[in-house]
Amino acid sequence: MVLRCSHCGSTKFYFTQPSRENSHKTYQHGACCAVCDKRFNLDDFVPAQPSACTRTSLAR
Fold first, then answer.
1. Which of 23, 24, 45, 51 shows the greatest Cβ crowding within 10 Å of its Cβ?
2. What is the DSSP pairing of strand 45-46 with strand 2-3?
3. Cα(3)–Cα(35) distance, rounded to whole angstroms?
């Protein structure tokens, strides 16, 4: 499984934790894109591609 932002395509992300001091923001606990700050959802999880050696061994 690969995390890839569906908005900008970045694979860099950071995790957030709830903070009592940050009451002006909506509650978010999880992963966000490091480039565009989009909250990750199920659309951002991409199945990993099989490696080339796996594909050739399956073709036999």
1. 45
2. antiparallel
3. 13
The pTM for the full model equals 0.60
Q: How many CB atoms are located within 10 Å of the residue 5 CB?
A: 22
> Per-residue pLDDT tens for 3-51?
899 999 999 999 887 665 555 555 566 889 999 989 888 889 888 776 6
Tokens representing residue 34 in the block: 């490091």
Handedness of CA 47, 49, 51, 57 (dihedral sign): positive
